[in-house]
Amino acid sequence: MMTGGHEMPSDQESLAGQGPGPGDVDLGRVWLGVAAQVWRRRPGLAERAAGRLLRSPGLARALVTTPSLLAGWLIATAVVLLAGLFATLGTGTPYVPLLAPAVAGAGIAYAYGPGIDPAWELSRSMAVSDRMVLLARALAVFALNAAMGLAATAASGAAAAVTFGWLVPMTAVCALALAAATLARSANVGVIVGLAGWAIVVLAGQSASGRLTAVITDTALVLPYLGFAAVCAAIAWAATRIPRGTS
Amino acid sequence: MNDDELIAAVAAGDDAGLRELFSRHAPWLAARLRAVLPAAEVEDVLQETFLAVWRGAGGYRPGGSGSAGGWVWGIARRQAALFLRRRGPAELLLPAIDAGGRQVADPAEAAVLRAELAEAVSALGPAGSPSREAWRLVYVEDRPVAEVAELMGVPVGTVKSRAHRARKQLRAALRRREPTPDGGGR
Amino acid sequence: MNVEISDLTRRFGRTRAVDGVSLQAGAGVFGLLGPNGAGKTTLLRMMATVIPPSSGRLRLLGRDPGSYGPRKEIRRRAGYLPQNLGYYPGFTVAEFVEYFALLKDMPPRQVPRAVAAAVEQVGLGDKARARLRTLSGGMLRRAGIAQAIVNQPELLMLDEPTAGLDPEQRVAFRALLRGLGERSTVIVSTHLVEDVGAACSEVALMDAGKIVFRGTPEELTARGERTGAAGDAPLERGYSAALAAARSAAAVRS
């Protein structure tokens, strides 16, 4: 009985590398079929759900690639809020409602735009428009930050007024950060303006009434906050129009 | 990189290695499959084959020259059989054959094995050469050895030894293509 | 006609980057030549619907990009490679091309195969899963070309596509252009004259926002003959001659 092919010429080796195969078999097409499956990306559950909800797989993909929705950013946000929570539990001062708007504002500024999107010019030529992407991302970042903030404040056992009261100023801070980022076309400018604006407001409130949380619990401020947010949102909207004058 | 290294790379997730394997092996695989299937189906089977290579590269065990080719051919043959089976038994009017001593009950696999057999037979030599003729007259046409000796104009002993040698060569050639249970070639 | 432009103007402040350009293009490869600052990029950006014109008429793929709906439809069927294309460093080539395929509203089922085809067409088949940060400038440019062609666009705008490509890659690129030009309108803007000569069926030469020459590469070459114009190659000489003629005519007028 023959024990193996060592003494015989290996037909496989002599055939391999011989030109294209049979003339009517399109090997290029075959490879594309293989490559399509090997190279494809399979979207995660969140992305598939978002795609169905928004009825746009492209928008869903843009959403899950938001810089401020990536794992690292979310973890950092959670860490900040947790630190605030522990500080609150230790000292009694509700830090979380003070921190949450700042963190959310930063997240909004990093949602989109020329400051952080290297392919900005190309994005402006897409069927899923950059404005849609910005809107979806900003809303998602806001909602996520709100949820995380609410969880942290509830855990810190603060009064109801404080637990929810900061959502309104948070809206204003986010709108401010967004307006600054889109006007200046820089995410960093958006963050700085948002944080600075909020810090100024908090400190002004403290010097006026002696309490740090004055700006959160004072119901008279609700309308001004919302009005301010609306103005900022309009500025952001205008800034993302297809440009007329500049470049 | 030789084939064994390429397959190991593919097992580690190197898709460029798969591309290289494809360029090396797809042509001859296509030629062999084309003997049994129409062109469009060869394309489908070849695509499934290389996807199976991509998924199953981890199961390959290197084993000497030609083993990579044997392994890939084994995958291609299974994919072709799967394909033919899916098409339904009505498509298959091919009788089962005894190839290299194995009984093959599955007509689908039989069809593919026939291609292997035809190629192994051609390895005996060109049509009309002593080994091929001996094989043809003794085993395919099933003539008595004495008659074959007269037809070929050689002694009976020569006919017997030629036929025996041809059968050994064929069995060896077919065994070489058959993958071992763990996926490697022999 | 995929592109119908008449008297198109685009102002930035008081400068006219594009000044009264008229153009029509059907299928084929169309070269846009000219020195830096001639307005080629601005013209391409208007055709990519990134910026609107200041005045004039622009119709792309039979539609008016001034309204939202038609503009979206144009964008689905167009491909654009900007002069400066940023990259997402953490993306692989396939992910990068796929991202923009999705943003162009391609049906998700078609996307994997389209991405594979585009990546292979630009010769990045063995780099498909390599991260963009590991690629050379020429490869990045080719990845940019791949995203532009992934949706088999009817209208393709390429701004300096051969930047960073070596001579062999340029040959392959010109072959790709010729193939694309059979079904679509391909507009290639470049300041490398010889680059496009072989692939284009028609060229336009821009200077200071205006089109100063329009015709076949052979006609442009003819302009340079017997004039002693500057240039090492026939098309270059034609380019120099046409440019010089246009500038002296403009000087005479003003």
Could you please describe the fold and organization of this structure?
The complex is a heterotrimer of chains A (247), B (186) and C (254). Chain A has one domain (46-239). Helix content of chain A is 69%, strand content 0%. Chain A has helices at residues 11-15, 27-39, 45-54, 57-64, 71-91, 96-109, 120-123, 130-155, 160-165, 167-184, 187-209, 214-217, 222-239. Chain A is elongated. The N and C termini of chain A lie far apart (82 Å). The model of chain A is unreliable at 1-18 (pLDDT under 50). In chain B, strands 1-2 form a two-stranded antiparallel sheet. Chain B folds into two domains: 3-95, Rna Polymerase Sigma Factor, Chain: A, CATH 1.10.1740.10; 98-175, Winged helix-like DNA-binding domain superfamily/Winged helix DNA-binding domain (Arc Repressor Mutant, subunit A), CATH 1.10.10. With 254 residues, chain C is α/β, with parallel strands linked by helices. Chain C is built from nine helices and nine strands. In chain C, helix 3 crosses helix 4, helix 3 (93-103) runs parallel beside helix 5 (137-149) and helix 4 packs across helix 5 (137-149). The chains are: A mainly alpha (247), B mainly alpha (186), C alpha/beta (254). The A-C interface holds A 28, 31-33, 35-37, 39-41, 51, 56-58, 61-62, 65, 117-129, 242-247 and C 12-13, 45, 48-52, 54, 72-73, 75-76, 78, 80-82, 84-88, 94-95, 98-100, 102-105, 108, 111-113, 115-117, 119-120, 125, 128-129, 147.
What is the structure about, briefly put?
With 247 residues, chain A is mostly helical. Chain A is 69% helix and 0% strand.
* Structural domain tally of chain C: 2
- Could you estimate the helical fraction of the residues of chain C in percent? 25-40%
Mean pLDDT of chain C: 90
CATH secondary-structure class of the largest domain in chain C: Alpha Beta
